[in-house]
Design brief:
Distance between the termini: 45 Å
Keywords: Coiled coil
Helix content: 25-40%
Low-confidence stretches: none
Number of strands: 3
Coiled coil: 4-31
Strand content: 5-15%
Structural class: alpha+beta
Length: 59
């Protein structure tokens, strides 16, 4: 396994771990597609739905 292949795998694992942590701590969730995000927008950045709820209300 070459250096760049190992580095690429490590970067991908880090990227996935960072995304998971961000999703777990997100402030808002789309009820349609379950995407999580921190921006208080009128619509979901993933699917465009307007069914946005605060995750703090779920806890």
């Amino acid at each position: 396994m070459g250096f760049f292949e190992r580095a690429g795998r490590r970067v991908e694992r880090f990227k996935q771990a960072a995304k998971k942590a961000a999703d777990e701590n997100a402030d808002y969730r789309c009820q349609s597609c379950n995407a999580r995000f921190n921006a208080d927008d009128d619509q979901c950045p993933e699917c465009g739905s307007t069914e946005i709820v605060s995750t703090s209300a779920e806890e």
